[in-house]
Fold each of these.
Amino acid sequence: MQIARWTVTGDVAAVLIQYNTEQARLFASNPGVVAVVGHAGSRDALLGAAVYNAQGVPNVVPNSTSARLARSGPWTFTLVPNDSVQGEFIAHYALDSLKVERIGVLYVGDEYGIGLRDGVQSALRRRQTALAGATMILSDGCWTRRGRVVFGPIVRAAIRRAQPDAVVITGGSANGWCVADYVHAANPAIWILFSDGMDGARIIPPSATHIASARVRGVTFWEPADDTLNAKFLKRVQPALGRQPVASQALQYDAYMLVAAAVRDVGPDRRAIRNWLESLGRTRKPWLGVTGPIAFNRPRSEILRMTGPEEEER
């Protein structure tokens, strides 16, 4: 079995729509491609899933949480709980573990951010608690000179309006830390709750000078377990990375190994692979990966967990 990769460059908007769709069409039209792992990100995954379901290509999505993927068709299989499940987890954690009363959301206005905002709001509503406030933020550029002009007033205004005890931030990477820094500059007592895009909020960057690390938590889908599978995974990938892998990488690894297991079991036939994947948790036992048992008859809510910055765990 061979793995094909696809890399493109160009304008961000064009890459997002044109190239993701083109990538999916090229894979789907190649009879030698028996399954696809990816795409990364909710919007990218949705663009790809539309093509793969139309062309009958098994599509294992490691990281995307969009609930819309479940409606893409029977050829798409996700390894992580969707926005609604994650939103419920975050809301319950805030209410039950942190004992907060007012929860706000700062969200990026894409499929990922909107889905998580709605997931948190729905979970709070079921708990007869209203969302204190929801404010849309830009997707990137927070640390730039222009970002300092734009993000600061948006965050401060959101905090004044909502008066939250906890703020859920759906941004990822550096931008999420920058937004959190503005929140704690306004009020360091507010709990920061990151969604999974921050991979557990482990490392606070030096540029985030206002963050009170004891008030930061982040959703993650995986931490190394003390078992043979995880030991082999770490031994295999940690030297190449130069550090411990994060949850998104563990999920990507599981996705590739899952497809490989299907091909070994039923051969390089697209429909047979799809049927094999669908049978996990139904007529076949769940497949055991480094992130835990994988089956597609229910959400994998058991892999959700909250972690904090590394200095808080030492």
Amino acid sequence: MTIHLPNDLESRIQAAVQNGRIASVDDAMAEAARLLPREIDQRQQEPHAGGIDLGPDPFLGSMRDADDELDQIVADAYRRRREDTWRDVAVE
């Protein structure tokens, strides 16, 4: 069997073999073949909101939607940190 992978995946698998995390490329492909049916079955069992695939993590998506608010929170935290005078104590 001949398998054609994108260069980035092939590089990652080769690196894992060289690092000793995987015994061989054949072992990596066998493991991938074992995991794929499980992944397909799992996806079929997960409920989707109105048939829309929410992606791997809907929570992260909501964080992306609130990126301006998160930026303001972080900016405020940095501003407060700079204003804290107790941080300026000299330590010898």
Amino acid sequence: MNYSEVDKTLQPWLTRHGLHVFTRYRDEEVRSIHVVDDAGARYQIWISDTNDHGRVRVSAWDFKKKKKVFESDFDDLSQMLEDAYSQVKQWIQQSDQTRTPVL
């Protein structure tokens, strides 16, 4: 996957939500965002290719059991990121916590 187009959408979204993206994992290029709640629980949002031209997948999970996948055309990336982040915030709220902002 070529992340140059992804980054054009991702960077403003990260800034808006005070988040940081990890771009390398085990010598592979990735786009992975961690969200931490005030109890220290971690959640992850990541972007991956669907191997279907013009489509992209945004996934969210709680590093345990909860997982949600959003898949659509690349043009919908911004909305899928918002949807994944809203899902993570909902999981955080369900555990009676709040989000710890990344500074």
Amino acid sequence: MHDYNGDWQFLTGDQFLKDNRIICLEDMMNADGTLNEVFNLEYGEVAERKSIGGEWIRKTFIKDE
């Protein structure tokens, strides 16, 4: 997710608060080179996939008011 504030979030679908980490974007890219396929997400866009190596599906994130 590239949120509306410009921050990147990498979520697994089963995240827990105790597992949150702040790391540099370069470290994420080095860990998973396929993230380069979605490097151009606009603010407020999300890319999801069912598994590592799966096809990225992009959509707009609906911001809570």
